[in-house]
Fold these 3 entries.
Entry 1:
Amino acid sequence: MSLPVLKAAVLFAPLLLAGCLSDDDEFLPQDGFQTVSLRSRSITGRDTAWVQDRRQAAAVDAKVRALLAGRTVGADAAVQVALLNNKGLQASYADIGVAVADLWQESLPPMNVRLGMSYGTVDFTRTVEGLVVSNIMALITRERRLDVATRQVEAAQLEAVLRTLEVASQTRRAWVEAVAAWENVSLLNRAKVAADAAAELAAGLGGTGAMTKADQAREQVFYAELAGRTASARLEARLAKERLVRLMGLYGKDIDFEVPNALPRLPRTVAKREGIEAEALRNRVDVQLAKLRLEALARSYGLTKATRFVSDLELGAGVEAEEEVEEKEDGGKERKTTFAPAIEAGITIPIFDSGQARLRKAEFEYLRAANLLAERGVNVRSEARSAYQAYRSGFDIARHYQNSVLPLRTTLEKEAVLTYNGMITSTFELITDTRERIEANIAALEARKNFWLADEGLTSAVYGGGEGDEAEQAEVETAEAGDDD
């Protein structure tokens, strides 16, 4: 073999070897998303989609437009649009692809190829060396690293499910808030119409001298106050709808949809959830995620122990080619090439770093994660009890307003109108009764809104995705970021 050919062989052999060892399986991050989609649908009853190309984007856009075609969007339709169209949710789904890619990378043979060549001329001797170096520590810890990477994929899936539940919960709550805000506007508009008519009547009576200026002023200020409250309520309703629009990920002409101007009626009965604590501990996604993180830390702790003393061990294998040039008696030159296998081993001996600090750090991280899991268990029990109490009490309060307070207020107002027409009740008393009936209607609306928010809160308490989960998740991420620093 000539020297140029040998050089080429040594140069390209590692590249050919790496190509032979590459994974032939196709990288399919969608496989990791199927678990998220099925789990999310079992809880929310709605579909999810991970958009990765134009074709998928067009399909999702068509679904969103179909859901908005009816102009008036219900709670279920709003949640479905958000799960398909929320860009922050799409960004969290990308974390699954990152985790699957890391797992894919770990599954590849640990052939971190290093090519070394040397060329020299000493006494007409030229030596070419090519070494393919493989990290032995990567081989030793490969199974553990694969295990840890698998847990990271599972954690990314659970985080995606949790984020999906958060978006669904936030969207349903925003829908309830928006509908209640527009119903409040409707109530105030009806009251303002009645107050406007009373103000005109008072002005007419005042012109004939049948009503004092004080009574006229009471009617007019009542109308003015209602006008101001109506304007404020309309602003709040518009802002509530904008919050819903943001969660649904809409812009442009798509935001022209409407929400109903009245909340759903109260159910006839409420569900009894006697084992709500056990149900929450069994189904909460954030608890499962905390358990998985604790398990991953435990496995990572084992990896730390495996690499405690030997931080870098390499073994190189290759071939050495040596060419000698000898002078002949007749003045010519004779070239001789000899080949010999080459093995190179290297180890880094930790003189100052015995690995004890890394072990202690891993132990403290595990201890912290274990305590966070225990804290999460306590909080989940309390959240489940609180959510159920809010649900039951909210239903009782809303039903009390519906069945007792509002009928009585309506009766009082009717009687006040009759006595006013009979010149028995004064204008001030009539205005007071009307004002109190308006306040009772608004209080009843607030009670119904609180019930439907508590209904959504109960679902979040059982499966996760509520407002408390977001705060705790932010604390965990902040702590993890501090460790990385």
Entry 2:
Amino acid sequence: MIPLSLAEIAEVVGGRLHGTDGSPVVTGSVEFDTREVTGGGLFVALPGERVDGHDFAAQAVGAGAVGVLAAREVDGPAVVVPPVERRGGNAYVLSGDTEGHGAAVLAALAKLARHVTDRLAAEHGLVVVGVTGSSGKTSTKDLIAQVLSPMGPTVAPPGSFNNELGHPWTALRADADTRYLVLELSARGPGHIAHLCQVAPPSIGAVLNVGSAHLGEFGSRQGIAQAKGELVEALPESGVAVLNADDPLVAGMAPRTRAKVVLVGEHPRADVRAEDVVLDEQARAGFRLVTPKGEAQVRLGVHGPHQVGNALTAAAIALELGATPQEVADRLGQAQRVSAHRMAVTERADGVTVINDAYNANPESVRAALKSLAAMSRATTPARRSWAVLGAMAELGGDSVRAHDEIGRLAVRLDINKLVVVGPDARAMHQGAHLEGSWGEESVLVPDVAAAIELLRAEVRPGDVVLVKASNSYGLWRVAEALLEAGSK
């Protein structure tokens, strides 16, 4: 963050000073966890289900914070912010926020982030890049950050820190030296992305795809497309919209923006496209990168054919910011997986390959993961035995049974050798596999993670390839970790 006094922060957020004359200057980071507070920092007091950050103000000050951003008076120097009325789409509800304190603090945090990013853009040329889509946001954000980093100091959120808290928190990591701020934008309803774009206005925005994630909240894919397109609507005329030419709903967003449109994909009309795509034995893609600035050969270090589209998005952004095709190709080849539990491919000493992709799951990402599993298992002769350990996909609303049924059928059509369906919420996957033609013990339904671990420990053989995937709340990453632990003994 740029140095700001508590008095300046109070003016920016419309708050009042408490326990201070406002002269102390925030020179450190902005944190909502007292364990992360360092000297010169600002502590953000947020309520939670079990504890209220306001009660830890003195502890934060003792750890070095010069002040607290709070919704009520606390034991320490603070900027106390006024209450806010939450309306429409720009409302992520904090669990435990019964008095609206969290809403007030988040609104103030958003104002502070906007002030800082506006100043950095005007005074230091900060470029804000926004990425959204139904799937692949985090992997693409990580690729973009790695491709841009050689061009200048780059800030990006850890993992999927992409909501009304993570967005301003990440923006406030930027300082006068930061050249690129890469942000991931999520939405649980209409207006959410538009709100995030007000927190840190992007000059470059990328929309990856429109799928079925959060279908329960939006009602239809068209509703999801309308919400995702809020990003391109927020771009200035001098900005750049990077759109997926392979997804008609995304390509159809072009008329919604004043910005320059760059299409990416394998479609012939894509401005930045991949041709002659091939996969190696670990489903890492190689392709010819074709751009208006020239061509280059790319060999990705990340796993899965779906990473081609993610890489093209990162390439298009870097090219717009001045990189050459060869520089982009070299950086994409060096880029690695950054965020945990996302296509993390590990080989045990006995040759068992474990693919931990258990951070999140929606129909599109599960299909992509299954195709990666099939490609990896067939990359050798003879083919390796494949296991798909799948849990439920959350937030699909009334489409849930059909979506799970289709995944079970796809596993059979891809000739996955063993399908392990974990938990009653995913039962329709198991039923779909049987209806598609699964026989015997090809597909099995187990009640929970412990049962899945027991089954796999007993039946996985050296050389097998095991994919583990589900929505994060189901904790299937524990299956992957148990397999890796077993392999180290």
Entry 3:
Amino acid sequence: MSSTLFRTKKVEQSILDTEEPEHALKKSLSALDLTVFGVGVIIGTGIFVLTGTVAKDNAGPAVALAFVAAGVACALAALCYAEFASTVPVAGSAYTFSYASLGELPAWIIGWDLVLEFALGTAVVAVGWSGYIQSLMDNAGWVMPASLGSREGSDVFGFDILAAALVLVLTGILVLGMKLSARITSIVVAIKVTVVLVVIIAGAFLIDSSNYDPFIPKEKPVEAGSSLQAPLIQLMFGWAPSNFGVMGIFTAASVVFFAFIGFDVVATAAEETRNPQRDMPRGILGSLLICTTLYVLVSIVVTGMEHYSKLDVDAPLAEAFKATGHPWYAGFISFGAAVGLTTVCMILLLGQTRVFFAMSRDGLLPRFFSHVHPRFKTPHRPTILLGVIIAIVAGFTPLTELAALVNIGTLFAFVVVAIGVIILRRTRPDLPRSFRTPWVPVVPILSVCASLWLMINLPAETWVRFAIWMVVGFVVYFLYGRTHSRLALQEAGKEQPTTGGGTP
């Protein structure tokens, strides 16, 4: 059985499968489109919300260093993603990479993980977008009935109609084509980046240098939740790290990491890129560099405008401007956040549908979902199915507690991709690689260590929920995927592999 569980799919076969007419996605994206996608999904609630939370709870003004630390961890993973995405330009991102290097069962596990990660991410962002819109409506005197609005902290049972409507509209856009999605994303990203730049430039004139004292607080003013980090390190080394000072920076990095989620989604669009060997590395690394720079500048500005201990947790940027006597910026920032979250939601949904589509094309999920639309050349069936499901989940379910699952799912994917780079370098040194991760295996090993470190910092309950989802995934694989995968059918002589002409 072990030979079937770890059977790998050749890179050449994965590429040939993309040439089947009924399963072929349209290639329409450029390096600029990919960079815009990356910036569009990375810059979201993280920059508008998490800055205040981690500054007040963990790192103080040194939150800028926390963003740098998280950015470095992401950069290590991004280098690995860039090599894989340019070498294996097939939809599915980490799932496809794992299938080519680690085997079918690890690929299934990471695909199952990504489906949950992107689904929860989409729903969480949709609910957050709804909250911003309702806030703007309240300021204008339009009050949404409690039964149709966000339910966080409310005793009224209702359906968040705005969150559900956003997901359904974006689902329709994704069905109509990637180029349309790219154009809409470009417009929204331009608005979002403009808002961020205005915050940085305007806030720079309101900085009080005394607010940077102390830059790295020695005492943490707010009690933090427990994580696996303390008991594990105490068990191994006999001491438990404090959650402030220098250690507070690393704790903060594990939290602000959520703000960086998204650059890996760019890799899911590899199959729809005109020149993936050249453009995928540019899109992945370029978007990460731009967003890390913006995050660091925003965090420096906001902690300079107002003392970290007084920052608002829910809307730190807006409240910092209010505290300095500039309330007009509060509405402007809320508008930018609301507009910007639409692209975050759309690109996360795009990533999930591409992973689902790739798993279906490989037979690990029903092949019914692997057919593309005859006109738009998009995976319309999984897009519609997942869009409707996520709309319902976003409408009915408060997802604050589940949001941390998005973090652990992404970090797990980073670990798998980094290991996959090392393995594929050894098993397939002959593969043409237009982009090569530098210093292999050092960079992939550092990426694994950084990701595991951040995972250890996550709350223990997050690990429990993640384990439950993985157990469910194992059950589904052994009941369906193991016997229905195309590799299994080919081994049994029930199906022929795709030939160069695009037909089996």
